[in-house]
């Protein structure tokens, strides 16, 4: 087995953390804070679910959100372990139920993401807007 030098491992870890943080909070060129890409993805899934497109909502979850939710949970756990646990529980419900996930489950995920973002130190992204 080839052993990687500690510097390589640390560089990879730093790259992963920085990428995750960028995914959680985006800043425009003008310096204005935008809604988090994680929150945007959750809101897109909530909208798709409410429009009767549960399979599309799950595709958004699996394609865009799953890994970002783990990053957010880890970041949240540093400040609020209970909020991180609620986020992971809400994520697990969607993961387990897939296209059978209820609108209430999607709404719970959106609310726990919003709470986790605030707990992790991001600005309040606001609630999902009805489309």
Structure, described:
Helix 2 (37-50) runs antiparallel to helix 3 (54-77), helix 3 runs parallel beside helix 5 (103-119) and helix 4 runs antiparallel to helix 5. The protein is globular, with a radius of gyration of 16 Å. It starts with 5 loop residues before the first helix and ends in a 12-residue tail after the last helix. Mean pLDDT is 81; it is low at 7-33. It contains 5 helices and no strands. The protein is mainly α and 131 residues long. 69% of the residues lie in helices and 0% in strands.
Brief overview, please?
By secondary structure, the protein is mainly alpha-helical.
Salient structural properties:
131 residues; mainly alpha; globular
Low-confidence regions: 7-33
Q: Strand pairing plus helix content: what structural class?
A: mainly alpha
Strand content: under 5%
Mean pLDDT: 81
Radius of gyration: 16 Å
Query: How would you describe the shape?
Result: globular
What is the strand tally? Answer: 0
How many helices in DSSP terms? 5
The ordered H/E elements are: HHHHH
Largest sheet: none
Helix content: 55-70%
What is the number of independent domains?
1
First-last Cα distance: 53 Å
């Amino acid at each position: 087995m080839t052993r990687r030098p500690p510097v390589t491992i640390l560089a990879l870890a730093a790259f992963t953390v920085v990428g995750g943080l960028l995914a959680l909070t985006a800043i425009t060129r003008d310096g204005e804070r935008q809604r988090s890409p994680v929150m945007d993805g959750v809101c897109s899934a909530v909208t798709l679910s409410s429009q009767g497109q549960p399979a599309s909502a799950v595709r958004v979850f699996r394609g865009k959100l799953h890994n970002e939710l783990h990053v957010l949970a880890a970041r949240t756990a540093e400040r609020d372990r209970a909020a991180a646990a609620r986020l992971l529980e809400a994520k697990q419900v969607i993961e387990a139920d897939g296209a059978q996930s209820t609108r209430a489950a999607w709404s719970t995920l959106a609310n726990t993401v919003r709470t986790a973002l605030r707990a992790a130190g991001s600005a309040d992204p606001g609630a999902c807007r009805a489309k």
